[in-house]
Specification:
By secondary structure, the chain is an alpha+beta fold. It has 4 helices and 8 strands. The chain folds into 2 domains: about 60 residues, Ribosomal Protein S8, Chain: A, domain 1 (2-Layer Sandwich); about 60 residues, 2-Layer Sandwich (Dna Ligase, domain 1), CATH 3.30.1490.10. Helix content is about 30%, strand content about 30%. Strands 4, 5, 6, 7 and 8 form a 5-stranded antiparallel β-sheet that branches. A 3-stranded antiparallel β-sheet has the order 1-3-2, covered by helices on one side. The longest helix has 14 residues. The protein is globular and about 45 Å long. About 30% of the residues are buried.
Amino acid sequence: MAMNDTLANALSKILNNEKVGKKTVEIRPAARLTKEVLREMNEHQYIGDYKEVSNGKGNMLELNLLGAINKCGAIKPRFPVAVKEYVKYEKRYLLAKDFGIIIVSTPKGIMTHIEAKKQNLGGKLLAYCY
C-alpha cells in the first residue's frame, strides 16, 4: 500500500484511536516531520509522551493518548501563510479564538501559529489540533 502523506495518516490514526478511547497508538513510518508535529502537540498537552521504536523494518512511534483531542488533521494543500493571514486560518480550522493550535512550518522550524505570530514569522500550514 502506498503511503502518500505520512503526517495526514498519522493524525487520522491518532484521531481514530482517540475516538474509540484507546490509550496508545503506533505510528509508522517515524518521519521527521511527524515527530516535529507530535512534539508541538505534546507541548500543548494534546498527546502524552511518545518514543521511537525500531522494529527492524524502519522505525515507528509509540505514543500515549490523553483523551484531550476533539479533532486534529493535516492541512492540505499546505497553504503558505503570511503573519497577517493567521486569523483567517484560525477561523477556518479552529473552533474559537485561542482554542486549539495550528502547526506551521516556518524558516525557524516547526511551531504553533501562536509562536509564529509572536516571532512575526510566516510559513506553511501543516496541521491543526483542538
